[in-house]
Amino acid sequence: MTTWNQEQQKEQKRVDQVIHKLADETDKLLEHLGGKKADVVQIRKNFWSDVTVNLEDADDAIETAASIKQQSELLSEIERSHTSAETRLKTYEKLKSSPYFGRIDFKEDGEKSAEQVYIGIASYYDEPSSTFLVHDWRAPISSLYYDHSLGEADYRAPSGNIEGQLELKRQFMIKNANITGMFDTGEAIGDDLLQHVLGNQANTQMKSIVATIQKEQNAIIRNTTSDLLVVQGAAGCGKTSAALQRVAFLLYRDRETIQSHHVVLFSPNNMFNSYVANVLPELGEENMEQTTFQAYVDHHLGRDYSIETPFEQMEELLSEKGDSKRVEAIKFKASVEFLEAIHRYAETLSKSGIPFLNVKFRDRIVIRSKQISEYFYSLDQKETVPYRMKKTVAWILEELKKIERRERKKPWVEKEIQLLDRNVYTRLYEKLEERNKYGADSFNDLSSEQKVLSAYVTRIAFKSLRESIEQFSFLDVKSLYAKLFQKNKRLIEDVNTWNEICNQTLFNLKQNHLANEDATPLLYVKELLVGFQSNAAVRHVFIDEAQDFSPFQFAFIQRVFPRANLTILGDLNQSIYAHASGETFSMLKNLLNKKNPETITLKRSYRSTKEIVEFTRSLLKDGNEIIPFNRSGDKPVIAAVEREEDHLNEVKDLVGNWLDKGHETIAVICRSAKESKDVYEKLKDNLDVRLMIDEDASFQKGVIVIPSYLAKGIEFDAVAIFDASGYQLERERKLFYTVCTRAMHELTVFYTGKPCPFIEGASENLYEVVQ
Ligand SMILES: Nc1ncnc2c1ncn2[C@@H]1O[C@H](COP(=O)(O)OP(=O)(O)OP(=O)(O)O)[C@@H](O)[C@H]1O
């Protein structure tokens, strides 16, 4: 037997031993859990009988409270240890199938021999031998595995820097407790395993990459020094993957202070949320909070306006209606200059000019906007506007109290009393009887009955008004925003289409419609006046696909999560929305004012084969910096088709071939949802295909037809681009690049009429042409 085989046998023996121990531990835990569960059920059952309830006098009441406290503390202690035992059990279950993926032998300076460190998704400590049989990949010593080749190496431990020699680095593939592959490598992370992993079929959900994290990705995952970490990287270089492993790392490192709900991920759409939802649970962690910026805007403005979604905006721009004037308006409204103009505007409002609305009750004006304005501007101007707004709310509520009292005698109140529900009447009666015990009037006394009922009716009638005042409904947000768009007062000199921008904005506002580009600035200017509703509990915010965030959105997130560190990940070459500034992320440093901002650039792309990356990077003006990972496949195919029927037939045949080859996730990517629907309708009778135009749908295996912008962030085994002749305008270059980079193994681009100018710019030896 060769030494390597012997070595593999030795390793398999160790795997067997570890798994055996894990099985024993699991049994013990199950027994312990059974006992605990019984304890909890017993305590819950006896909770009130074990507690001495005696409320006769003050001393007894104190004793009772103490008794309840003691019981509930006991209960929660048992529940706590039950939960942590359950978590451990889940971890053991995962380790039992694949206990680790790596081993390093590290000889610390001053030690006689090297320590063998096995690395897995969680640590496993063996009490009898007082050793870690598996180290968590996030433990300080595990960073040696990702960061160093053989030879001198060091890592940062809580006690300081530890130096020594890395003598061995071994990677394992272990499935169902069997070693199916094993490689020794001298590099940081050997390419063999990565080749194997990347060659697999795409999954409908993203996988964790802990076994093959690259050194440059590890720098993102383990960064602890920066409050603003910006990651710029090519399509498929692992930005999303690194972000998710970073969440897992932070949850592990700061486990005493941070839980999953202290971390928020902003992603491009809900489908993407479901696509990444499995990574953290796979690593034994709970998912962070996931949201989209649109969800935030809808939550705050959805009741008052019909808001255009980013997808609706995209559809319009991709249709014939999408003119360059609208694009210019969108860019203007997302610009840093507009943001600064809004700040200047808000400053002037501190002295005068805030538009207020009359406060109305039952269609009658009860407080005039002029009175509100006078009150607001009578307050000390040294105080902030949000503080004065809060004082104004308090003042209006006081005024409403007086008005409410006066209303009680009005005829409408009497009418409402007649309509009162019987149950309400009885409840009020009981309340009054209760009060009566203490010498108040009786309900039988007619005048006091009337008083109670009219007070009740008016209180209920004013309730929603009071609540809306607390939400600053007296602020005329529409006029506030509209005032920015005066034809004779250009906010920024070099906007050519200023008059059109003004007309369109004012027209939309009149209809209570908010174009997507107006929603965030309008909300922003409102919040500058009333104060941002912030969440200080959140400690880390991740923004994925950040190239499509406007400066407004960044500024918003910063204010809403004032204590959070930001990790911002994006690729400027994939800026597909018109509001994307196209600027580098360097403006974020000034905009966000965070400590130690750092930028990391990732250049190596892992998703697609070398041939696909070489082709896609040539679609960009400056794509040469993107480095493909060395995994080979077929060259992309450019297929010219003459007629629509031919196009559909060719797509159908191609997809059939791909299915025969074993590809499981296949996408026919169209430009718009409109085109997707059309293509789907024509394909569905001859092909098992699904239409994916709803961003709330979850991503599934099989063949899908999907619009370009929804495919952002996800990947497929094989991609067919439907009619690339549709991508003609320079502003669609990045959209075209984005859709082509979704392919892992195969890419075919069809076109019907005019060739796509971006392909024409690519060198002919990078693709095959099929006529
Ligand atoms: N170190 C790695 N080991 C294994 N697979 C990796 C690694 N890094 C990235 N990948 C794989 O590469 C693919 C692309 O990764 P990911 O989606 O994170 O890239 P991205 O930079 O977010 O891409 P895009 O900008 O195009 O959305 C995924 O399949 C991911 O699993």
Automatic annotation (TrEMBL):
Protein name: DNA 3'-5' helicase
Main EC class the enzyme belongs to: isomerase
Annotated EC: 5.6.2.4
Superkingdom per UniProt: Bacteria
Gene3D superfamilies on file: P-loop containing nucleotide triphosphate hydrolases
SUPFAM superfamilies cross-referenced by the UniProt entry: P-loop containing nucleoside triphosphate hydrolases
GO molecular function: 3'-5' DNA helicase activity; ATP binding; ATP hydrolysis activity; DNA binding
TM spans (from-to): none
A Pfam family hit: UvrD-helicase
Species for this entry: Fictibacillus phosphorivorans
Keyword line: ATP-binding, Helicase, Hydrolase, Isomerase, Nucleotide-binding
Residue positions binding ATP: G233, A234, A235, G236, C237, G238, K239, T240
Domain UvrD-like helicase ATP-binding: 212-609
Record-level GO BP terms: recombinational repair
Entry GO CC: cytosol
